[in-house]
Design brief:
- This protein has about 270 residues and is α/β, with parallel strands linked by helices.
- It folds into two domains: about 120 residues, 3-Layer(aba) Sandwich (Rossmann fold), CATH 3.40.50; about 140 residues, 3-Layer(aba) Sandwich (Rossmann fold), CATH 3.40.50.
- The protein is about 45% helix and about 20% strand.
- It contains eight helices and ten strands.
- Strands 3-2-1-4-5-10-9-6-7-8 form a ten-stranded mixed β-sheet, sandwiched between helices.
- Strand 6, helix 5 and strand 7 form a beta-alpha-beta unit.
- The longest helix has 25 residues.
- The chain is globular, with a radius of gyration of 20 Å.
Length: about 270
């Protein structure tokens, strides 16, 4: 299953968009799909087992119908229906997959928070797809010089090269915040911040071009909040890639501040890579 694309399937619009995205991606990479649905909400009440069994059977029937439609296009598709905590079940499923694709939800929506936890804890890259977005081209990746940022760049470059699209490497800088009436930052200081950031991006681009000599790579280095800039750059892109900083038993369910903000403001399909 190491090459399998796993799709978390529910009955909402974002899930349908996620399935469409995953199907196209699987076809492009000649990869099988595993459709996973999770029946949640069980608390151990008397008589609950019968209710859960009936729910699982109903979900399985609908999921098999969906799988049959996808199989008709020539893709190999398997189905898995479980019951339990959807976050934990999808994180467990991700351990054997190449990619986990789930539907996105707006900030404040319960399942939207679940999406962030899944992305932070998953064992493979996670792509979160919004319910409605205009299909675009090109891949955007945010970099900050960290190891997880390097992993995001590798993933983004591979995706751009596979699709024959442009890769844009985005990095930002901000001056040290000073309380009170500080006045104007020295021009030399601001220029040096920009130069340091640009040099880091140049090293990233050099490594990408070594791995993908034919890939069209662009850069965008600017002052500003990284999440805000990445979201702005996302308009018109096919895919945005950011790194997750989830670590440890508890922290693995938390995204870094930048990736969390990008996921909370989904513009297009967004991959979170650890």
């Amino acid at each position: 299953m190491a090459n399998t694309i796993i799709v978390g399937v529910t009955d909402d619009a974002a899930s349908r968009s996620a399935l469409e995205w995953a199907t196209e991606r699987a076809r492009a990479g000649a990869q099988p799909l595993l459709l996973v649905s999770v029946v949640g909400g069980a608390v151990g009440a008397v008589g609950e087992e019968e209710v859960v069994d009936a729910a699982v059977a109903g979900v399985r029937e609908r999921l098999e119908a969906t799988a049959a439609t996808v199989r008709a296009t020539g893709l190999p598709v398997e189905v898995r229906v479980t019951h339990g905590n959807p976050v934990a079940e999808l994180i467990d499923a991700s351990e054997d997959g190449a990619l986990l694709v789930i539907g996105g939800a707006p900030r404040g929506h319960g399942r939207g928070r679940h999406g962030g936890r899944i992305a932070a804890g998953a064992k493979c890259p996670v792509v979160i797809v919004p319910a409605a977005s205009t299909p675009g081209t090109g891949v955007i990746v945010g970099v900050d010089g960290s190891e997880v940022s390097d992993a995001a760049v590798t993933f983004a470059a591979d995706e751009a090269a596979r699709a024959g699209e442009t890769l844009t490497v985005v990095s930002t800088w901000m001056p040290v915040a000073v309380a009170g009436d500080f006045g104007v930052y020295p021009d030399l200081y601001l220029a040096d911040l920009n130069g340091i950031t640009a040099s880091g991006v140049d090293r990233v681009v050099e490594a990408v071009r070594a791995a993908h000599p034919d890939l069209d790579v662009h850069t965008h280095v600017t002052e500003g909040d990284p999440a805000t800039v990445i979201v702005e750059q996302s308009a018109g892109a096919r895919l945005v890639v950011v790194g997750s900083h989830g670590r440890g038993a508890f922290a693995r369910f938390l995204l870094g501040s930048v990736s969390e903000e990008v996921v909370a403001h989904l513009v297009t399909a967004t991959a979170v890579v650890r």
